Amino acid sequence: WEEMLSTKGLTVVDVYQQWCGPCRAVVSLLRKIKNELGDDLLHFATAEADSIDALEKYRGKCEPTFLFYGGGELVGVLRGANAPLLQRMIVEELGKEKLVLEQGGERKAVNDGLVDDEKKEEETPQQSENEESIIVPASKSYTVAIIKPDAVAHGKANEIIMKIQDAGFEILAHEERTLTEIEARDFYQHKAAEACFEDLVQFMSSGPSHILVLSQAEGSANVVPSWREFIGPADIEEARREKPESLRAQYGTQTLFNAVHGSEDIDQASRELAFFFPNFRTASVTEQDGEEEHVERTLALIRPDIAREKRDEILAQIHKSGFTVALQREVMLTGEQVRQFYFQHVEEDYFPALLRSMTSGPVLALALARSGAVHHWKNILGPSDVNKAREESPDLRAQFAVENEPINQLHGSASHEEAEQEINFFFPKQQTLAVIKPDAMEEHREKILEEIRGSGFSVTQLKETVLSREMAEEFYKEHREKPFFGQLVEFMCRGPCMMLILTKENAVEEWRAMMGPTDPDQAKATCPNSLRARFASNILHNSVHGSSSEQHAEEKISFIFGDICSDAEPTGDGETDTTTLADNSDSFYELSELKYLF
């Protein structure tokens, strides 16, 4: 490491974890840059964080990290495998290093922004904040850009991204993603009546696209028209004739394969942002001033030995510490499930005691929410070693330790990534059926869809349909004996409605809460922000429908969409569900992998 730091020139170091190896995705890019520049002052290196003391702070990080060193000083840091940005930084930092060597200037060392010690960690509780959140000042305008599969397949994505940046656009978010046919159909629903719709859906789901959120300098004019001017007309011949410098003129081949997409107006940009980046939001003034923090979740487990007798006391301390219990579930774990959950600890000497403790009775699982949840919950738990906790810390593990029991009685997630995986393990995703009724379709459909995605629901499937009388009667068969049944059926058949399968933890109850009471007048009085309070006109024309229970949801989903396989496990009708956790080891690993793949 010391020898590398003393190398003359600019050295770019790919810092990696032992379990995953160097970032292979950029190896060809680095080789290309080296060959093109042919500069003896440019060097590339890989470094395993696990075995180099100087890189201790980078251990356990799942995000690719590239460090730029000049003259032994850290002069640049890039997190994430953003190829265009990496290429640009290499060229820029190499130029700066040459100026220093030639003219004897002073290097501008940078702070890598990582927490160096526990004291700093206490001072910056937001360090573990959800990295997937995208927060920008409210003064900036933004739009969605898509580099379509045809341009990506021809290797033009990086070139287009460089041109976007050179034109003065700022990339706020960037994700490579292959749309499913359902997603493509949903995204281009506004073009469903056009003759090319099916071809468009097939094309957009044929391969990877690059999805970008673009902005311009703070305080500048609306970015949407600037971006549409830059990409040119959708028709390639028109683009080549009237805007030969536009992206579509340069990279498109025909109207369908026109290389790039741009939102048509601000409203469409907002809908598209909600579709691709549900965690995208603008910062309020207080957030920009640092007075407001982002809310995240962590998993807490109260183990069986104290779950029954001490739960109320522990929950009181949890609430006192500023946490909200977002999800709560009491479960009996099998030995195999404990091994799956604690797979990293199976070989440890203490694991038999842990296994015995975790299977001795119901475990209370809690998803806790607050700003800096992971950090704060770990802090109030204290050391994991019971003896050390008793000696050094008055925190929860010391307070609720069981005599002659070597295992601590409370669990907390170690990181934000681990928290989401563990929450998925104990609170598997649930599905519910949602319906946007005919009265809301024309005026409020897009707003409702936007709010659905903004509330964290995934739209697994959707279809727009006009119900026949027979279908409507079967759909509402539980109301057959009620006096309003005939009116309800007639209303549901009078125009198109949209059927959606929504997926989320506790999806049934969360969707019902989002809808509000059936009667809009009651909704306005008790839940003024609910969908029915804002969009419904009366108890019959109440805009949306939702399943009343998970069993009801399964029946209606099967009726509308046919038999669909779901990994979601029932969580019951109450706030706290006491049941046996079904063997969901496959779904646990699928969820944890998909989190990083998509």
TrEMBL record:
Q: Is Manganese given among the entry's keywords?
A: no
Annotated ATP binding lies at: K437, F484, R512, T518, R532, N542
Cross-referenced CDD domains: NDPk_TX, TRX_NDPK
Q: Which Pfam families match?
A: NDK (PF00334), Thioredoxin (PF00085)
Provide ranges: composition bias, Basic and acidic residues: 111-123
GO terms, molecular function: metal ion binding; nucleoside diphosphate kinase activity
Q: What is its main location?
A: other
Q: Which residues form the active site?
A: H261 (pros-phosphohistidine intermediate), H411 (pros-phosphohistidine intermediate), H545 (pros-phosphohistidine intermediate)
Query: What top-level branch of life does the organism fall under?
Result: Eukaryota
Give the UniProt record's GO annotations in the biological process aspect: CTP biosynthetic process; GTP biosynthetic process; UTP biosynthetic process
Where does the record place it?
Cell projection, Lamellipodium; Cell projection, Ruffle; Cytoplasm; Nucleus
Question: Which residues constitute the signal peptide according to the record?
Answer: none
Give Gene Ontology CC terms: cytoplasm; lamellipodium; nucleus; ruffle
> What sequence ranges are listed for the domain Nucleoside diphosphate kinase-like?
140-284, 295-428, 429-566
Keyword set, alphabetical order: Cell cycle, Cytoplasm, Metal-binding, Nucleus
> Does the record bear Cell cycle in its keywords?
yes
Family to which this protein belongs: Belongs to the NDK family.
Its function, per the record, reads: Major role in the synthesis of nucleoside triphosphates other than ATP.
What protein am I looking at?
Nucleoside diphosphate kinase B
Organism, as annotated: Dicentrarchus labrax
